[in-house]
Each structure stands twice: as C-alpha cells, then as structure tokens.
C-alpha cells in the first residue's frame, strides 16, 4: 500500500511511461472504493459511464446523464485526492457540437475537480477533442469497442479484426493524437493492432482494455475485477478477489442471524441505568 502519495500529474504519467513503467487504471464510482484505490497507489481512476450498468442497473450506458456523472465523479474525487481522475463524458454530452462538448467538459472540471475527461470516437470526434484541449482541459480518446455506439458496432465484440477496420482505428488514433488527446484508450482490439498503435504514438499515452500487454498501461472495470457484476464476466477481465462471493455470504449470514435473533448481541447495543428506567416508567 502506498501510505503517503504525491498527487499524480500529467508530467508524472509521462515520466512513468518514459521509464517503461506500466500505468494502472481502474474504474471507480463511489467514495469508499476511491479511498482504497488511492491507497493502493492507482495511477489513474476512471469514473466511467459504465456506472449506468454496474451501479444503476441499466442494460447499456446510454441513459446516463451529466448529473449522474458529476455526482459520482465528485464523490470519487473526495475519496481519491491523488490518482489522476478522469470523468467520462456520457452519451449526447459531446456528440451534438463542439460547443456542447466544451461546456460539458468544463462542467466536469469545475464541479468535480477531476483532472481530465474521456470521450468515445475517432476522426469524427477529433474537433471535439481539439476544442476541449484548446479550452485548457486534458482530453482522452477512446477507440475500438466504444459502448455508446454498441448498436452500430453490432454488440460488445472485438473490433479491428479485419485489415480495413484495423486501418480505420490506426487512422482514428492518429487523428485524436493530432487533435491534442494526451492519452487514448484502446478497448477490445487485437493485441497486434494495439502494439502497432502504441509504437506509432509520438506524444500520446496508449492504454489497453482487453487489447493485450503492449500498451503504456492497463484499464480494468472495478466490478469485473471483484466479481461484482452479476450479468456477465467478459473474457478481458480477471477476478483479482471474489468480493461478490464474500459480500453474498455476509448478506446470507445477516439475514439468517436476524431471523434467529443471534444478531444483535450485547456488545451491539446500549443499556440504561435502573434508576433512569424506573423514573421513566413512573413518568408514563
Ligand atoms: O465507462 C467506462 O467504464 C468505460 C470503459 C468501458 C472503458 O468507458
């Protein structure tokens, strides 16, 4: 555990990359988890719009609003003062226009204290990235499997397997870097394609989610890492600890003990002196 940490900065992220040290990045949506991730020394934290699925129980990320994102991102900032905090731009908070994108990115920075924002899309979103960066806000691009376009992509599946689609992802990465993105997340693309893009990146940090080891670091969804999402376990995830099982066992135990009247016990409640209780009875 990192007991005393320095706040992670953009130069700090690039320094680690230059030293060949992989960056750790994980999603987080609430205060207590943010405290633990900060303590673990997580380099970056993403408050992803995946919270629509993992925390709010929707079937996709599309219903998530800016207000949802602001509330969760501010809570994570309170728990993690040191990790580089990324706010994820939700559906339709940047697609309509460059101005909408800048306004909502600005809301993220002003109302949550996050360090940067992330948005999905390639060449067609490069002008949004450029506008946001021109406004002084560090921006991260997101290519490959982009969940806000899941309908157009035909489901949560590998992207860039064929040469033509892979070429489009290479071109998209170049366009985002040229637009000023300091970092690009590559989600669920073949490992060789991820390696190629990482090698071609000039001044941009490339992060992998399910795209192999040859990037500057890894992102993992918290609920996948701790078996907390009951609907499915993606192949790209590894369960680092089965918290879902531990919590389920705890809940079963609580329900059982309440039913058996073995919880609470003496140490869980407070008594009242006899004279006070007698006085109470007399007063009734
Ligand atoms: O919302 C999110 O958590 C994300 C990841 C899937 C990359 O964007």
What does this protein look like?
The protein has 284 residues and is an alpha/beta fold. The chain has helices at 10-18, 31-40, 51-54, 66-79, 98-112, 126-134, 150-153, 163-179, 191-200, 222-225, 243-260, 274-283, and strands spanning 23-27, 44-47, 84-88, 116-120, 139-144, 183-187, 205-209, 217-220. An 8-stranded parallel beta barrel has the order 1-2-3-4-5-6-7-8, surrounded by 6 helices. Helix 4 runs parallel beside helix 5 (98-112), helix 5 packs across helix 6 (126-134) and helix 6 runs parallel beside helix 8. The mean pLDDT is 96. Residues 27, 46, 48-50, 88, 147, 185, 187, 209, 219, 221 line the site of 3-methyl-2-oxobutanoic acid.
Descriptive key words:
single chain; 284 residues; alpha/beta; TIM Barrel; 2 domains; eight-stranded parallel β-barrel; 12 helices; 8 strands; binds 3-methyl-2-oxobutanoic acid
> Considering the protein shown, what is the CATH homologous superfamily of the largest domain?
Phosphoenolpyruvate-binding domains
| Average of per-residue pLDDT values | 96
| CATH architect. name of the largest domain | Alpha-Beta Barrel
**What's the N-to-C terminus distance?**
56 Å
Count every beta strand, where a strand is a DSSP E run of 2 or more residues: 8
Task: Write the CATH fold name of the largest domain.
Answer: TIM Barrel
Helical content (DSSP H or I, runs of 4+): 40-55%
- Gyration radius, in Å: 23 Å
> Which CATH class of the largest domain?
Alpha Beta
Low-confidence stretches: none
Largest sheet: 8 strands, parallel, barrel
Summed up, the helix count is 12
Strand order of the largest sheet: 1-2-3-4-5-6-7-8
Query: What fraction of the residues are assigned to beta strands by DSSP?
Result: 5-15%
SSE-based structural type: alpha/beta
H/E series: HEHEHHEHEHEHHEHEEHHH
- Ligand kinds: 3-methyl-2-oxobutanoic acid
